[in-house]
Automatic annotation (TrEMBL):
The lineage of its organism: Bacteria, Bacillati, Actinomycetota, Actinomycetes, Micrococcales. This is enoyl-CoA hydratase. Its EC number is 4.2.1.17. It comes from Intrasporangium calvum (strain ATCC 23552 / DSM 43043 / JCM 3097 / NBRC 12989 / NCIMB 10167 / NRRL B-3866 / 7 KIP). CDD domains: crotonase-like. GO terms for molecular function: 3-hydroxyacyl-CoA dehydratase activity. Keywords: Lipid metabolism, Lyase. SUPFAM superfamilies: ClpP/crotonase. InterPro entries: ClpP/crotonase-like_dom_sf (IPR029045), Enoyl-CoA_hyd/isom_CS (IPR018376), Enoyl-CoA_hydra/iso (IPR001753), Enoyl-CoA_hydra_C (IPR014748). Transmembrane segments: none annotated. Belongs to the enoyl-CoA hydratase/isomerase family. It catalyses: a (3S)-3-hydroxyacyl-CoA = a (2E)-enoyl-CoA + H2O; a 4-saturated-(3S)-3-hydroxyacyl-CoA = a (3E)-enoyl-CoA + H2O. It comes from the Bacteria.
Amino acid sequence: MTQPASHSLVRVERFDEPGLAHVAELVLDRPESLNAVSTAMAEAIRDATSSLAADDGVRCVVLTSSHPKAFCVGADLKERNAFTDADLVQQRPLARSAYGGVLALPMPVIAAVDGFALGGGFELALSCDVIIAGEGALVGLPEVGVGVIPGGGGTQLLVRRVGWSKAAKAIFSAAKMPATEALGMGAVDEVVPAGRARDRALELARAIAANSPVGLRNAKRAMRLGSDVDLASGLEIEDACWRATAFSGDRKEGVAAFAEKRTPNWPGR
């Protein structure tokens, strides 16, 4: 069973099941528009991620869709077709805060992608730490085909995932890639049977959430902050995050539980 907390156009659900008690599911819930990101939906994503980031009880987030055939088709182009230049300028900070909110979540985040994940929809997935895709999923950054560029982090996140040349080919061609092709280039991390991405993501989230919440957050922080600096600087970042973890209540409990051959009861501090 789940306990939903409603936001406009998204849902945040928590689970009663013990193994998933520290997992939150962030559900994109604008099915009539295939989860196209309108101004209102961007605001809902921003608010939901802000709330999740502040929740110390959440050890892992799974980003899913309420539509079985679409994760998210990107920006709401019908809405934008009526925009003036001033409207577009006004919307921009809000859009950035929505995608940035997913990227900035301090705990591990898994995207469960079935169906279409295009443009801003794929950028939402790229903002997560792990992407699980169902067979039949179609992903890509086709923005140059409609006269813009990826603006939800795609030009940066895809390069960091797959390297310059593969990202360049995908972005410049506006290609829509099947899940198996995306897996081959490293744009997604795992492909499962169609319709099973959410199940697999929750299975992985269960395994992640069994671990130290302090350790999870500091490991992610070390990885994120260290990924774009030289090795020596990265090792200093790692050391700072190690120190923040090594003298925590979680470290003491983890060592004690190992010695006593029992499951840790993480204090999370």
